[in-house]
Amino acid sequence: MNFVLLGAPGAGKGTQAKKMVREYGIAHISTGDILRAAVADKTPLGAKAKTYMDAGDLVPDQLVIDLVKERLDKPDAKKGFILDGFPRTTAQAVALDTELSELGLEIDGALSINVPNEQIVARLSSRRLCQECGYIGSEADLTCPKCGGKMYQRDDDQPEAIHNRLEVYDKQTAPLIDYYKGKNLLYDVDGNRPVDQVLNDIKEIVSELQA
Ligand code: AMP
Predict the structure, then answer these.
(1) Ligand 1: residues within 6 Å at CB?
(2) Residue 211: its pLDDT value, please?
């Protein structure tokens, strides 16, 4: 099965994607993770993306479209995938549809994880990630509860970048909710609850889609 995860930054897309990977054995394609790795490795892609990312702006469409195309071509994506953080603009959604139809694939569902704005700001400000295993926790986690690794704060989880990311989300990404609603693929998920309750809702949606 192939899914798109929609939702504001901090809605819990990455956390739920990791759990879905464990549950369904499908590939996790996070454009944010791929871009952060490119920045850390100082690749040409990372050099192009860094300024946009630090400011909380979107990286130009063509850069992310090309990297997603390349990723979808890898063998593990054939078992199914979860796109996390892509598409983020209508141009990306249209390019994704074109690419998938060329590959003879389609999206089975777009899961929109909804969390009120005040909650989002609080989550992003306190979000911390494990340098070693990518665990997503909060400032209460002094070390990673999964592997003991060092926790760090993303540069774009600073107040100014958070504000910009939320504006960018409202203007450029929120319209995708109607895009997928129009294709009868949209499933709303209440993300303002404990992680495992959100996952249970997702599992119910997936079961319905599999039935
Ligand atoms: P994320 O980890 O999904 O919050 O993404 C972190 C940052 O990477 C975003 O604020 C953007 O700068 C960039 N990024 C990730 N995915 C995309 C995308 N689909 N389109 C454009 N920029 C993206």
Answers:
(1) 9, 31-32, 35, 52-53, 56-59, 64, 85-86, 88, 92, 156, 165
(2) 86
Provide the residue ranges of all domains of the chain, joining segments of one domain with +. Answer: 2-26+79-116+170-210
Q: At the fourth CATH level, which superfamily is domain 2-26+79-116+170-210?
A: P-loop containing nucleotide triphosphate hydrolases (3.40.50.300)
95, two tokens:
């390019």
SS3 labels along 86-152? CCCCHHHHHHHHHHHHHHCCCCCEEEEEECCHHHHHHHHHHEEEECCCCCEEECCCCECCCCCCEEE
The structure tokens 């992003």 sit at 124
As averages over each run of 10 residues, the pLDDT of the chain (211 residues) reads: 96 96 96 95 96 94 96 93 98 97 95 95 94 94 97 91 94 97 98 97 96 86
